[in-house]
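WP5 quarterly update. Target: Glycosidase. Source organism: Alicyclobacillus tolerans. Length: 578 aa.
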Amino acid sequence: MQIRWKWFHRSQSPFAYALTSHRARLVCAIEAGAAVAVHVYTADRYVSQFAKECLCQEMRKNGSDENWDWYVIDVEVPTRRLLYQFSITDRQEPDGLPVFLGGQGADTDRSLAGYFHLPYLCSRDLYQVPEWVRQTTVYQIFPDRFYRAGSKEHVSESEWYTTPTASLRLGGNLAGILEKLPFLQELGVGLIYLTPIFLADSNHKYNTTDYLQVDPDFGTFHDVARLVEEAHQRGMRVMLDAVFNHAGYDFAPFQDVLHKGKDSAYWDWFFIHGDTVSIEPVNYETFANDVRSMPKLNVAHPDVEAYLLQVARYWIEETGIDGWRLDVANEVDHVFWRKFRETVKSCHPQCLIIGEVWHDSLPWLQGDQFDGVMNYLFRENVLDYFIRETTDEKTYAARMTNLLYSYPRQANLCMFNLLGSHDTERVMTLANHQEDKVARALIAQFTFPGMPMIYYGDEVGMEGGADPDCRRGMEWRKERQNQNILNLIKRLARLKREESALASDYLNFLRVEPGILQYERVSEDSRSRVLITFNHRPSTVSLPISGEVLLAYPEQAYDLSSQMLAPDGVVITRVDTK
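C-alpha cells (predicted):
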C-alpha cells in the first residue's frame, strides 16, 4: 500500500527497549502533521489471535522536530515477551481507516502490515544506571587551577591570576579541593569530577606516567581517600578521569620500547610503524596527530587490557570513588569498554561511567558500555540559541527534541549537560560578558533532562578563551565574583535536587513561536509538573499560569498578579496537575 506520509520505527534502541524486566518503551516517528492519533496494540508473542487478545493504548505525542512528530508510550510486558503493531489515524485518509504499521510495512490490512517483536526482556540486558544521577549537579575541577592548600610554597595572588600558558603550574592540589568542600556543598554540587590526578609531567596530566600513583603535585593516595570520604560525609560523590586511549611519553612500558625496540615485551602495547621507534618524525600512533608525548595504547592487547582493567578496579576498591570519566572514549574499541563496564559495575554497581564523545554517541549508549557521555551536542544547541543567537525558537526546540530521541531514556538521565569544559571557551566569554545571556543558558541547562555540569569558575562568571586560557586560576576574590550568577546556580541546583519533575526524562515543548519558548517537565508519577518559559521579545507578554513561581529571572520578571512576563525574562512555575 502507498501512504502519503513517512514514518520510522525499528525494534531496537532508541525506538524499542526495556525499561525494566516487565516494562518497555516504544517510540514511533510519524511525518510532522500527518497523524490525528497514534495507538499501539500489544500482546504476548505467542497469542493465537492477535486482533482479539491484544491491548490497545493511545500513544502520547511528545515533541516534534523539522521532520517528525514523536509518539511515545511505556507499556507493561507481563510475560517479558512483546508483539506489537501501531495504528495511525491519518489526517488525509478520506474513509477514516487506520493505517497499521508493522514489521512488513504500512497497510490498512493489519495482517499485511505484520508485527514488531521484542522477543524477551532479559534481565542481564537491561540498561541500568545509578539511581542517584537523577537530581545531581556535577562540578568539574582542573586540580592545578582550583585551590592550593597545605603547603608553605604558595604562589602569590598575582601569579595565581596570571594569564595561563600551556606549561603554567599554579600548584592547586587535592588538599585545596578538600578545604573547599563547604563551598561546593553550599553551591549544591552532588558530584565532583576531577580531570586526571595521576603521575604525569604536565599541568593537565593527560599524558599519564603511572596510573597507580597520584602525582605529587596534587598530593598522595591518602589525600584521594580522604577527599572521597569527606565528600561522602557531605552527600557528594567523586569521579576520576581515566586516560586509556593513550599514555604518556614517560610511561614505563613506552620507555622500555624506546630502549629495547622490538626486544621489548611491551612492543605490541603500542602502534609502531616500522622496526624502530622514531620521535622525529613520529612513526607511532598518538593522541591526535603526531603528539609524541602521548603514544596511543593498543587496548586490544591482552596485557594492556588486563592492566587498564586493574587500574579501574584499584581506584574504586581502594578509595571508594563513584565514577570514571573516559578520555577520548570514541577511539577505544567497544569490546574493551564492555569489559570495562563489567569490571566497574561488579565492584561498584552505582559507579557512574561517562565517556568523552563529541558527536552522536548511540553506539556507546546501549547499556553495555557507558551510562552517559559529555553532551557536547547539547552544548552547541544551547550556545547557538541563547549565546550566539544564530538559531530561532523553532530550530532550538526541534534540535533538542531530536537530541532526546537520539538516545534511550537511561542515557538521557546520565548525560553531562555542559556549557563549557577544560577544552572549550568559557561561556561568559562567548556571551561577550553579557550576564543575562549566561543566566538564560544556565536555566536551560538545569531544566533539561540529564545532569547539569558546571566547569569550575563558571559559577562566579569567570572568563577565558580557548585552551589554555579557559584554564585560569579559580577566581576566589569575592569582589570579582559574579554574585548574581553564583546565587542563580545555587537556586537552580536546589530546584534540580528538590523538584521530582526535573528528575525525569520527560520534556515537551508547548509554545514555540517567535520570541517565546515554553516547555514542560513532568515527573514519572505525573504528580509534579513544571513549566519553563522564556520571553525573548522586546515587550511584555501575557502568561496566564495557575501555580507557584519557583524562580524568575530577573527577580521581578514575572508579575503574578497581572500574569505578565517581562522582556528577556524567564519564569519557572510548578503547575497543579489535578
